[in-house]
Structure formats: structure tokens, C-alpha cells
Amino acid sequence: MLNIFYEDQELIVVKKPVGMESQETHSFSPDLVSEIKKHIHHLSTKKEEPYVGVIHRLDKPVGGIMVYAKTKEAASLLSRQVKENQMQKMYMAVVCGKPVDNVDNFVDYLLKDTGKNMSRIVEKGISGAKRAELRYQVVDTFKEEELLTLVKIWLITGRHHQIRVQFAGRGLPLWGDHRYNSKFAGQKSIALSACELSFLHPKTKKPLTFQMEPEGEIFQRFFKKQINGI
Description:
alpha+beta, 11-stranded mixed sheet, 4 helices
């Protein structure tokens, strides 16, 4: 069942489930674009395939809020907001360990390895490397077998695996991220969620903001701790 935050003639804002691709694939596995097309087709009397424009992406193991365009004009205007850093995205994540500073910016240069579907931090000037910047704020810490930290993250750029790579590169891998920490081998979900999305409506220019709480057992440990005042 498609979880819809908002929909009109120009766009649709939905919750991407963990484990689902955010764009169309050539496999038999479900993807969010196909699900949105089915939803639009069900409501429309038009016979042609609905248009769904991908504006931004989330990794398959990551869930959260996404916006898709329903017209080419809306797709162009929303994509321009992404390019000009007018679309604001806030994530919540659980990292292993604790950052040195409670509030900080990470700036690195990332190089994507398409063959391995990974990225790595490299020196500035390396061919193909792209500048990556984010800022974060520590929300809380929790210790059972190891020290874990709940953080809010705001992306300033949008690079392949950016949050995962930049935190792992500082010895703070995201909980559950087997691709950048082998101790999580076999883990299918990552403690990373796109929890807030803000942008201007492409037609009315009205500011829109959508929010959700991160889902997953590891996040609930922090929320239970806060509720119980531990």
C-alpha cells in the first residue's frame, strides 16, 4: 500500500519503504516509481502510461520521505531546486561511536566505484572526485554493548552513499551498514531515515514541509530511553 503524504496535479510526496528501490529497475522486485504509476493509473481515465519524474534518490536499504513530479514541467522546476540547494533534506541516523563535536560540518571529496557500488574519500583533485558536504547535530547517545549516537544530518550536496561514506571515513559507520562495516554482514537495513523534506511547490511557489519519525528497532531504543528518562 502506497503511503502518501501529499498529492496534487503536479507532484506526489510519499514514504519510501526500506528495501524498495526509489527508481525503476529491470528486475521483478517492486520499485517506488512503478507503485506510483499504478496508483496514478488507478485514479485516472487516461490510457497512456503516467509520467513520474524522479527528483532525488534514496538507497535501497534506506526509508523516508520522497517527492516525485507528475509533469515534466514540475520535474524541471523541482530538479532546479535540488541543483540550487533550495530543497532541504534532513536525515536521522544511528552511528557506531560518538563524533568528537556535537555540531559540525563534514567536507570531503568522494570517488564512486560503480563496479563495487561503493564510494570512498579521496584527495581533492583526483579525477572523477566530487565535493561532498553535510552538517550534523548529535541528538543523544546510548550504550549497551557499544556506544551508539543518534544524529540529525542535513545534506548540502547529494553524492552517492554520501552520509554512509563520510561517517564511516571518520570511524563512525552507520549501524547496520554492511557495505562500509563488515561486522554488519547479512544486515539488510541501515539506521538511516529521510525524516524531513522542504521545498517550494513548483506551480504555486508555496513552501511545503513534510516530516516523519525514523522507523526501526534501533531508533526505538533512543525514543524509549528519552520517554523513560534514562
